[in-house]
Amino acid sequence: MISQCFCNTTLYVFIIYPIDDVKSPRAVVNPDISKIRNIGIMAHIDAGKTTTTERMLYYSGYTRALGGVGMSRERGITIQSAAVTFDWKKHRINLIDTPGHVDFTLEVERALRVLDGAVAVFDASAGVEAQTLTVWRQAEKHHVPCICFLNKMDKPGASLHFSIESIKKKLKANPVLLQIPIGSGKSFTGLIDLITNQQMTWRVKSRAEDGRVFETKSLSQSDDPELLQDAMEARAALIEQVADLDDEFAELLLGVYGENFDAVPPAKLQEAVRRVTLARKGVPVLCGSSLRNKGVQPLLDAITAYLPAPNERHHDLVRWYQDDLCALAFKVVHDKQRGPLVFVRIYSGTMKPQSAVLNINRNNTERMSRLLLPFADQHVEIPSLTAGNIALCVGLKQTVTGDTIVSSKASAVAAVRRAQNEKEGERKRGGEQASLVLAGVEVPEPVFFCSIEPPTMSRQAELENALTCLQREDPSLKVRVDSDSGQTILCGMGELHIEILHDRIRREYGIETHLGPLQVAYRETILQSMATTDTLDRTVGERRHMVTVSVAVCPIMDSSSSSLTSCEITYDEEVEEQLSPDVRDAVENGVNSSYLQGPLLGYPVQGVSTMIQSVSMEPGTSLAMLSACVSRCMLKALRQAGGQVLEPVMSLEVTVGEEHLSSVLGDLAQRRGAIRDIQSRHDSKVLLATAPLAEMMGYSTALRTLTSGNATFSLQLDIYEAMNPQHQNALRRNQVFLYA
């Protein structure tokens, strides 16, 4: 509903959304693919992601009250990607709100894998923070176009200039400013849209007002000359910047509007900004305050205007599968009534309930009983869903995160034929499976582990079932049984990650488990290259097994990388040609088994390249004996190459008042921290440092005590670094059990 009034020839448009018109997705189950936007909201912890999601749902008419959508509100963070679907101005938006805490980076990773665009939310008083940088890199890896939302413009110290410079310097991005704020801090009242030259003002008289009503008027009628001047300069800079980034717009500007750039129609400028965004040459920047209900509606407009539709993102499989079903399972959750619910992104074809689908990764057929649409905090059953959408499937009991789902083997074979026709020169060996399967989610290695025990042995089976379900939901959770102690070991991404899992086992499965001491997941590598030969000669019954193996190992640890370098296996050319596939598998099994426990302290081996130089087997020698000989030869080579323990080192950012800076610095020195930089941010100091993960356990409590709660910090894995001999010996003495 729009009401208008005229006063002194100034046009005021008050935009009012009917408060009781709560919509239903049944109205438009399958919109046109060009009207779909699959987007994610990503940012640093506490930048306002979940609040922004709630406001979007409220203003679009899918919820009646503000608040209540985000998961795990008692912790103040979103710990799982909450998928919601809603409509905005004839567009279908599938939105995933992701956590900003470093322990849940995998949630962000698997969300970005299936999204077409992303909204990066920033705290306007802090700019780019540690986890913002991490999620931005993840978005870049998947070539996801982004727009930026400078949230919390109402906070003291909020700065448009500071945030823009932070995006340029830290993200190495090209911000395209589409709005400028009217006022800042408590005086923040609205925005100026530089595309349309309009002023939007939220006249909030009390906190009870929900921001549905805001005033829009032409900027040319503004009574504030300074504001008008700022807007004119900002729009001129925007036009010039877009012309530099988009050739089509530059030609239009010079040809038609050469004498008056200000005469460029808003529609032409908007089209050019869209092309720049989709080409990832620039990122549109908007601002507002979600908590104060300002600027969210223009953000929704920007999502539909600038982020891509599914058919504007080019996936090979869409071309190869054509109208046949092809979907990626990117998340699994367990529901007590329905069983496992699988979130899928449909890339091509149509998905229907009561149909059989083929899981290519597992090579098995499953029947999907029901198809659901994630509708805010409830699920609505639907009869079908087409390409470009995100859905929930019930009945896929074997499917896990990263699996590719197609309609049948026949459709997969047809897709392979199309792919091979397209790439005739490509080697066919291994090509079929690679062409058929969508790239799954990369799962990082856990950095923490601890033992977990049920209250009584009679509940061990229940605990194992709970852990199996949780592993299907969360691939970053690893569970193993220690070979020496027989304990069940829980491996996760951080203290909070393991704490959340512990709470979920208690709340969802009713098991009061006991966690052992939290341990750091160290690794081992070698110091030098080494070549060895070993012979195994055994007689079992009347059969003689004799094999001689020569291997060479060398270190390949990349010290500049924040991730561990995987071990690799290569062969001498002559040896590779002589070995059959079965023998190669046996050799590689032997090498991989030697990587599980390093020769120094028994931690997994990383960053080692192994070359198989020769394999000589007597006739009748079993493959098991070959694997055993390779493993023994590898252990000998690793011992002779000299071992080195690697410890995870974290990148740390602490924001603290100047009066507490010396206390924080002293505490970090005791934790083997290395200070990289100390920056000023308004009235606070930002401390950038690195410190071993083992020394940072319990840091949140310690920092709160040191600063009386007046400090914030963030951690993320920076690098695996060689541990000095003194601490390595201390680790040997204090080792509780081996991480195998």
From TrEMBL:
The keyword Ubl conjugation does not apply. One of its GO terms (cellular component) is mitochondrial matrix. Residues 34-311 form the Tr-type G domain. Keywords: GTP-binding, Hydrolase, Mitochondrion, Nucleotide-binding, Protein biosynthesis. GO terms for molecular function: GTP binding; GTPase activity. GO terms for biological process: mitochondrial translation; ribosome disassembly. InterPro entries: EFG_II (IPR041095), EFG_III (IPR009022), EFG_III/V (IPR035647), EFG_V (IPR035649), EFG_V-like (IPR000640), EFTu-like_2 (IPR004161), P-loop_NTPase (IPR027417), Ribosomal_Su5_D2-typ_SF (IPR020568). The keyword RNA-binding does not apply. This is Elongation factor G2. The lineage of its organism: Eukaryota, Metazoa, Chordata, Craniata, Vertebrata. The gene is gfm2.
